[in-house]
């Protein structure tokens, strides 16, 4: 289907207009690349779109981005189907932690969302979501003969694992602390992260229409202009009426199945029943109390709060790095550099604490002006760990990581 509008074909005037539109939607800042999107990556979900493409009024890419940014959806319920195809080996659940970058729960509770929701980084999953404003959200991860639910109701945040009959309880701080360290779980979450990458290194077009979960939607196509990135294209289905992203698909530059795809199979924008967010620990359940401070509540929310995206209100520019890392490059080719402070690189034998060289078997040894190191690869995010203790991470190719390390920065 023909595209409605392309930044590549509309010249400098429309490019300037798109930038102006982005300024109006200030929450979309330049990212550290697409690493934020890859915190939890979701794979191919087939047959989410209904048959037949709807006929809708024409809209420009700028207008569609603004429509997403200005979407005021505060109430919804529905089912989201997600899965993951990072191309990682089956490591008995370890791949989920590696992909998400989230450390195992310190509480030891199977109901703690900081570890439970990392399961979204591998396999196929069905989620039921419900939202009623900023103070009430519920996300349920449906499993075989079991269910995990994460509920935010007022100041209380509850996690419940029906398989183990364990409950995790946290409390949101009275200062209204933002939940910045969230696990993306809906098309909106992923779209917010991806649209942070829209700058002059990006081509943005409206690529026709489609039907998702019975709703008419526009297709926004986001493609890097740069070579060297592992991201091929991102497609976002945007509700034609209210601007809510209904489906998100990220395909790799290497081709093949999508790396990231999350889509509603059913959705309603009616107000959920108040009882949806009620929770009382079942009789006999083991209850673990989390950190009740505002800081602790940030992690205990686990990602069900907010359809605004991490960092939306923080004012922090990730492209500038932070105290513990810096950023090389621009746009989709951005690479985060972290000094781990550990000399010797990745152990490759039993004397190094890695019996049989297990970690070494998962990566490729490389060398250059920087010395020696090892590259660990997925279909989206790659990481180079050098023998002098530095780590280079980004949604870029192995060659790009080696080049960055050779720069001596």
Remind me, CATH topology of the largest domain?
outer membrane lipoprotein receptor (LolB), chain A
- Total number of helices: 8
Instruction: Examine the secondary-structure arrangement and name the CATH architecture of the largest domain.
Output: Clam
**Approximate strand percentage:** 25-35%
In the CATH hierarchy, what is the class of the largest domain?
Answer: Mainly Beta
The total of beta strands comes to 20
Order of helices and strands: EHEHEHHEEEEEHEEEEEEHEEHEEEEH
The oligomeric state of the chains shown is single chain
Return the average pLDDT rounded to an integer.
74
CATH homologous superfamily heading of the largest domain? Lipoprotein localisation LolA/LolB/LppX
Distance N terminus to C terminus? 45 Å
- Biggest sheet character: 14 strands, mixed
- The rough form would be described as globular
Mind telling me the C-alpha Rg? 21 Å
The helix-and-strand class reads alpha+beta
> What is the percent of helical residues?
10-25%
Q: State the low-pLDDT regions, or none.
A: 1-51, 91-104, 174-181, 292-322, 349-356
Number of discrete domains: 2
């Amino acid at each position: 289907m023909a595209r409605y509008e392309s930044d590549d074909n509309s010249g400098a005037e429309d490019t300037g207009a798109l930038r102006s539109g982005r300024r109006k939607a200030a929450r979309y800042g330049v990212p550290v690349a697409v690493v934020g999107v890859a915190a939890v990556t979701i794979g191919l979900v087939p047959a989410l779109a209904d048959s037949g493409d709807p006929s809708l009024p024409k809209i420009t890419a700028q207008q569609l981005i603004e429509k997403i940014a200005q979407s005021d959806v505060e109430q919804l319920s529905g089912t989201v189907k997600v899965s993951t195809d990072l191309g990682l080996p089956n490591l008995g659940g370890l791949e989920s932690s590696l992909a998400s970058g989230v450390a195992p729960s310190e509480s030891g509770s199977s109901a703690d969302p900081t570890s439970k929701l990392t399961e979204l980084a591998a396999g196929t999953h069905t989620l039921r979501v419900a939202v009623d404003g900023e103070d009430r959200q519920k996300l349920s991860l449906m499993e075989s003969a079991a269910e995990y639910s994460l509920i935010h109701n007022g100041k209380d945040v509850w996690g419940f694992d029906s398989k183990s009959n364990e409950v995790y309880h946290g409390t949101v701080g009275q200062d209204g602390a933002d939940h910045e360290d969230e696990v993306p779980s809906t098309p909106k979450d992923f779209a917010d992260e991806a649209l942070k990458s829209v700058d002059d290194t990006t081509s943005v077009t409206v690529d026709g229409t489609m039907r998702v979960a019975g709703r008419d939607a526009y297709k926004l196509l986001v493609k890097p202009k740069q070579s060297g990135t592992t991201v091929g294209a991102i497609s976002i289905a945007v509700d034609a009426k209210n601007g809510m992203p209904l489906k998100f698909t990220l395909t790799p530059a290497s081709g093949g199945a999508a790396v990231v795809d999350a889509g509603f199979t059913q959705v309603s924008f009616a107000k959920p029943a108040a009882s949806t967010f009620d929770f009382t620990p079942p009789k006999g359940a083991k209850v673990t109390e989390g950190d009740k401070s505002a800081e602790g509540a940030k992690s205990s929310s686990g990602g069900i709060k907010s359809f605004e995206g991490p960092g939306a209100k923080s004012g922090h520019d990730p492209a500038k790095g932070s105290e513990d890392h810096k950023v090389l490059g621009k746009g989709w080719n951005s690479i985060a550099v972290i000094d781990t402070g550990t000399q010797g690189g990745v152990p490759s034998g039993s004397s190094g604490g890695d019996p049989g060289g297990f970690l070494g078997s998962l990566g490729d040894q490389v060398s250059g002006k920087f010395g020696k190191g090892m590259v660990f690869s997925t279909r989206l995010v790659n990481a180079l760990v050098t023998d002098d203790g530095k780590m280079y991470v980004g949604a870029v190719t192995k060659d790009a990581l080696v080049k960055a390390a050779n720069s001596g920065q």
